[in-house]
Amino acid sequence: MWGKETMTIAEAFGVSLTGIVVVFLSLVFLAIAIKIVSAVLNGFVKEPPKGGSANKQQVKTQAAPQNKGTDPKLIAAVVGAVSQEQRGRVENFRIVSINEVK
Question: In this entry, which stretches build a coiled coil (predicted)?
């Protein structure tokens, strides 16, 4: 196959198919490895207590106040950052105020 100058259509298809299979198998193994490592690391993280509205956290953040015409994209970014830091859903906490620090 490699001694010739050209490949037949069947040989070209076989080489292409082999390359595609190798790439996708690598991606599948990588996804499985990520799931396994994620599950192991999540076993070490302490979960926040599950509860009703009495256990909801109140979080104060420092950004621009909403009543002075703050950009909604900035508010969404602050809420997303707090959600990531708290490792919880947005429904599990309440932002009381947003104040800009200069």
Answer: none
